[in-house]
Amino acid sequence: MNDIMAIAMAGLAGYLLGGIPVGLIVGRIAGVGDLREYGSGKTGFTNALRAMGKKWAVMVVAGDVLKGVLAVAVARLLFDGAPAAALAGSAAVFGHVFPVFAGFRGGRGVSTAFGAFLMVSPVVALVIFSVSLVVLFTFRYASLMSVTGVAAALVAVAVLATGGWLNLAYLALFAVPVTALVELSHLENIRRLLAGTEPKLGQGGGRRAAGAS
DSSP string covering 90-134, please? Predict the structure, then answer.
């Protein structure tokens, strides 16, 4: 198998793994139906916490993180080289945000991105975790935690890659596109943060109005 084919197959595998709608599956099991009918309309941890509570939200975040871990791990196992693993991680996050198994309406990709960053570099994952905890406990905004945590990860990967401790493919094919995707998926949250109308962690979990975007 040539390098281009291996990278393409790794990307496809990552996308399909990322597209598994963990939040929707857990929502059905928890008895709330389609999680996207509540709160933010997303399938990730924050909306699961609002709509279903801590126990179910932990299941959602664990499954979403695992998708990112498996995408990079499987790519490394089956396809040799950093580019394949990097693209698989990016594709998993893309699959979570735009899941083929759930009408291309998923979450914002943060937990899956964390799982992929963890496999790429535990040091980077520690940076994300540390920055995220400080921001969350200081401000109580999950969205602010997400955008700052992923931005910090990009800086950490850039430092490691340019310093020769991490393959540059993880910067170009993974950290840059994943950070861009996560930040773009939070544009509405960023606008609400600036306007002072963003709900804090655990708030805003009611059922959405019919036709809400």
Answer: HHHHHHHHS-GGGTT----SHHHHHHHHHHH-HHHHHHHHHHHHH
**Residues 79, 6: contact at Cβ < 8 Å?**
yes
Convert the pLDDT of each residue in 101-139 to its tens digit: 999 999 999 999 999 999 999 999 999 999 999 999 999
Mean pLDDT of 23-51: 94
Residue 60 contacts residue 23 (beta carbons within 8 Å): yes
Is the full-model pTM beyond 0.85? yes
Quote the DSSP letter at residue 35. Answer: G
CB 111 within 8 A of CB 33: no
Which tokens is 34 given? Answer: 């389609």
DSSP conformational letter for 38: B
Give the burial class of 170: count Cβ atoms within 10 A of its Cβ; 0-12 exposed, 13-18 middle, 19 or more buried.
buried
